Amino acid sequence: KTILQHTTQQINKMKVQLSLYAKNLPKVTSLFQGAANPYAVVKTLSEDGKAVDVGKTEVVTKTLDPTWTTRFILEHDFETTLHVSVAVFHKDDKGEPKPMGSALIDVVTVADSKPFTVSKGMKGGGDLFVKVQKYEEKGTLHLQMKGTQLKSTEGLGLGILVKPDPYFELHRLTIDRKGWDLVHRSPPVRNTLDPVWAEAVIDLGTLCRGDMNLPLRIKVFDHEKNGKHVDMGEFQSSVNGLLASKNFSATQDINQADLASAFTLRIGKNKKEMGQVVVLRADLIGMETVARSQDPAPSEPPKQDPAPSEPPKQDPAPTIAAAPIVPEVAVAYTPPAPAPAPHSPQPPTAYYAPQPPAPHSPQPPTAYYAPQPTAAYSPQPTAAYYAPQPTTTYSPQPPAGPPSYTPPPSDGAPFVPPGVAAANAHQHYTPPPPPPTFEAYIEGGCLFNLAVAIDFSASNGDPRQMGNLHYASSWGDDKNEYERALHDVGSVLAKHDTEQRHPFWGFSGKFQGQIRQSFQCGPNAEVQGIDGIQSAYRSMFTSRSGMSMSEPTTITDVIKTAAHYAKKKSEQARYEKCLSYTVLMIITDGKLEDFTKEGRTIYDANDAPMSIVAVGVGSADFTGMRYLNDIDRNGRKMFNFLPYDVLKSNPRMIEKVTMEKVSEQLVQYFTSHGIKPGKKVAKDIVFSF
Prior knowledge:
689 residues, alpha+beta, 7-stranded mixed β-sheet, 4-stranded antiparallel β-sheet, 26 strands, 25% strand, disordered N terminus, disordered C terminus
């Protein structure tokens, strides 16, 4: 007998639960947009042919093989037929939804099948999988968990450059005990190895069919924007196991949760440990009696793993706008043909001097301020020249209530039984629209500008001697470290450059006995593409350039020059009713003279529409460069250090770590100024030069 047969003839109706997933959906997006963002709309068809809205699933982004966690509860008299219409659409943030396929399902046929799942080819392309199972109200599980000391999947597994964005999925063992059903997916927690996930409210009829000892699989993934999420480990338990492991301190401080009963995440055939998961809350609501016996040994799980799907988006942390500060401006020196004009670079300001962890004997700290190496960059006010407010970092609390989106009835909300609706009505919420993305700004007309600066200091060694960083044999096909870094990292950034014309500067070069810390490389103020930069770079080692390598090494003047350039480009774009953002790529051996001075310059330049990507070449100690990586002004960072020697064998990692932070900083800059994609720059945003 099937699950839809009744034990008595007097009962004519029962509730069933319908779940969906799809495979091989057609591609309906452009090449630039990547994979689709599919969601499904469900309707029932009455005997007279009228369509009744049941609801729609959540949107699963960047995939053509979505698994939706939204369940639909149907009540039906099985002496008659019930047809369900399922239509799949791509959610386009800029336009109308695009159809991807549709199918008509007979619920009774699905329920009579084994194992209660039917695959059906959709009109338009792709395959739809529909599962129908008996549903009984069993109450809800209120669950909150915390990951602790998770192993990083980013930055070659070291978490040096970026940290993962962990989220978890709950899977239950199927009725035939041969597979797993995905029943819940949490929102990701950004950039952390110790995530505290938002509390989830999960229907027990969906989670375990009322069986408190049904095996559950809890899987943790690192969320990736392209939809290819990375496995971070898993563990198995049951509802009773989660209840037993709950251990929350009397002070209600989640950081004091007892790790003695934590679950260990493991991955791979060798069961490598990937961190621990602590249950902060596990409470049953709506059940009169629950047996909390010991969890028996779970059945052997199937060997196949379901592909991870895109978690729902959660609200970004608000951005605190920076107070306007006018940094000192340095204009790049341009060597003339006969002899360079006298040049006296402005000395760096001296009223701020924190002590960074520089390996090359930076200047001793003054009495004004002496933070630890890893401390946030928070300058103290000095005299009448500069008095910034202390940096404030916003730490949002995990959102309350269920993370799933429940649209209003007019949008086709799924039917929820009255008892469940009354118990959970206060927990539903309507999230705000998703935040703007890097792609949205670029597509909206934001001009992306790449500027390049290269270190010509004597610490790089004699360029005529093999083995030194600037050496290349006969300047032929064999590239040196600077040229390889310029090609590998520069090409990632240059492909977003709107005009493909780049200013190219050098620093720590000597012209006719005068040391220049910001000078033009080559005869032209801007060069065409990466090949143009390579050509101008090689010309600096010819006798016609008049340059010799020198000391000391500082990037202060180059950053000021780039900030001036970024503001000027932004002003020009404003009058053309568009946006502009600049990225300065600095390639250096990292042996800077005074990291304190560099840190202050980076802090002052933070108000410019600009990011800095510093590429470290060679095998020097880059501790000081990582110190600059942490400089923060009103919650915004702009300096990003990349150790090229570590990353050069992994082009995909180079692209990931290069663009991830730059994209985030571009969005953060514009949103902090209230500028939306494709909108005209506000008239009151005016820069000083």
